[in-house]
Write a structure and sequence with these properties.
With 159 residues, the chain is of the alpha/beta class. It is 32% helix and 18% strand.
Length: 159
């Protein structure tokens, strides 16, 4: 007897991994995860938080909260590194090319991350939720980046 079980499509599978990565985030405002994938293989992961050997916001407080900085603005006023930046840095640190890869991210990247993503040669972004950064959206469109919105509850079963 053959048992037919539901399997998620590849995008859902990698997004589920991305959500798990986000659980490592140390940001007090938003937990974000990023996973770089090429040819159905995970190349690098990242989550948002302070750099290595630097105290996390959970320990010292959130500078952005203290200064009342709205989401999507003044990215430099933060001790943390964005998840997308951490994934790109990890790939570079370990000598892994991400040219032609897909970035899975829990949120659409900000304008700073977008510039890095474009120049790193990433060709596709799959994301769960939007982000308040119109410059990012404009640059992604101009760069002809393939964007796929994959909401949390979406699952596909292959035929």
């Amino acid at each position: 007897m053959t048992i037919k079980r539901e399997r998620p499509c590849w995008d859902t599978y990698f997004m589920d991994i991305t959500c798990l990565v986000a659980k490592r985030a140390t940001c007090l405002r938003r937990a974000v995860g990023a996973v770089v994938v090429k040819e159905r293989r995970v190349l690098a992961t990242g989550y948002n938080g302070a750099p290595s050997n630097v105290r996390h916001c959970a320990e010292v407080g959130c500078l952005r909260e203290q200064l009342n900085v709205p989401s999507g603005e003044r990215h430099e006023l933060c001790r943390g590194i964005h998840a997308e930046q951490n994934a790109i840095i990890q790939a570079a640190y370990h000598g892994v090319s991400i040219k032609g890869a897909t970035l899975f991210c829990t949120n659409l990247p900000c304008s700073i991350c977008t510039k890095m993503i474009i120049n790193a040669g990433i060709v596709r972004i799959v994301y769960q939720a939007g982000y308040a950064d119109t410059i990012s959206k404009d640059m992604l469109a101009e760069a002809r980046m393939e964007l796929v919105h994959l909401p949390t509850s979406q699952t596909e079963v292959p035929s």
